[in-house]
Amino acid sequence: MDYPGNLFVVAAPSGAGKSSLVKALLELDSHVQPSVSHTTRPPRGQERHGREYFFTSEQEFDAMVAGNGFIEWAHVHGRRYGTSRKSIEERIGQGADVILEIDFQGAMQVKEAFSNAVLIFILPPSWEELRSRLERRGEDAPDVIELRLKNAAIEMAQAEKFDFVIINELFERALFDMKTVVHAQRLKYAAQRRARADTFESLNIV
Ligand SMILES: Nc1ncnc2c1ncn2[C@@H]1O[C@H](COP(=O)(O)OP(=O)(O)OP(=O)(O)O)[C@@H](O)[C@H]1O
Ligand SMILES: Nc1nc2c(ncn2[C@@H]2O[C@H](COP(=O)(O)O)[C@@H](O)[C@H]2O)c(=O)[nH]1
Predict the structure, then answer these.
(1) In this predicted structure, which of 14-23, 106-115, 120-129, 133-142 has the lowest mean pLDDT?
(2) Residue 152's pLDDT is what?
(3) DSSP string covering the chain
(4) pLDDT of residue 199
(5) Quick one: average pLDDT of 186-194?
(6) Which is the closest atom of ligand 2 to the Cα of 35?
(7) What is the ipTM of this complex?
(8) I need a surface site. Which of 1, 13, 55, 185 has the fewest CB within 10 A?
């Protein structure tokens, strides 16, 4: 199905900075809307239901899976996370651009279902910096940080399957790269739609 809005998917190992980059992009570009995922993990710190995530029970999550309620879902760091089908299809159907912050397994599922989706992978500049960002963030217990670093190796091996890879060393540089990808996709999509409309017109197809 062809939707008028664009779908952007941002994945990265935990701590690489994807939430910070997406937040900054949303502040600069009011046409891009965030997606709020469902998760079975408990809230951290100041997180609120419906803002960072919809925090759901295992049973609620099972029911959404059974009802085909997710465009993608995956086990990540021992919990389940998923993106609501209804919310995404409604918004891109109305012409909004939606950005998903999800893991690589989910990103691959999105590309299968939405071939026009643009997949962006964020890499940290080094392992030392990734560890230090997770530690400085101060939101995860040491054993959780170790698990996230272990999973990071598996996740980073998937980077080459993405359309774009951005290295988040200098934050402003990485943000500029992400903005460029978003704008380029809009221009490309608009040009494709115009070319198709022109062809239809010249062939007298309504
Ligand atoms: N370019 C950067 N330089 C230095 N610190 C950064 C940079 N980008 C992000 N950070 C910091 O690194 C930490 C991790 O960033 P963030 O929470 O955005 O990561 P994430 O990839 O979204 O992680 P998760 O998947 O666990 O949510 C935060 O404290 C953030 O302020
Ligand atoms: N496949 C999906 N992955 C998701 C989704 N929402 C978030 N995530 C990823 O989970 C990890 C951990 O997130 P955290 O908030 O617990 O630190 C991170 O890589 C997210 O990108 C989703 O809907 N689907």
Answers:
(1) 133-142
(2) 94
(3) ---SS-EEEEE--TTSSHHHHHHHHHHH-TTEEE-PEEESSPP-TT--BTTTEEE--HHHHHHHHHTT-EEEEEEETTEEEEEEHHHHHHHHHTT-EEEEE--HHHHHHHHHH-TT-EEEEEE-S-HHHHHHHHHHHT-S-HHHHHHHHHHHHHHHTTGGGSSEEEE-SSHHHHHHHHHHHHHHHHHHHHHHHHHHHHHHHHTT--
(4) 82
(5) 82
(6) 23
(7) 0.96
(8) 1
Name the residue with tokens 């943000």.
Answer: 175
Q: What is the pLDDT of residue 24?
A: 98
What single letter denotes the amino acid at residue 181?
V
Q: Evaluate: CB of 81 within 6 angstroms of ligand 2.
A: yes
Question: How far is Cα 20 from Cα 175, in angstroms, rounded to an integer?
Answer: 9
Most distant CA atoms of the chain, gap in Å: 65
Query: In the predicted model, what is the mean pLDDT of residues 120-143?
Result: 95
Ligand nearest to the CA of 15: 1
Q: What is the pLDDT of residue 206?
A: 61
CA angle 174, 178, 181 (to 5 degrees): 140
Rounded to the nearest integer, the mean pLDDT of the chain is 94
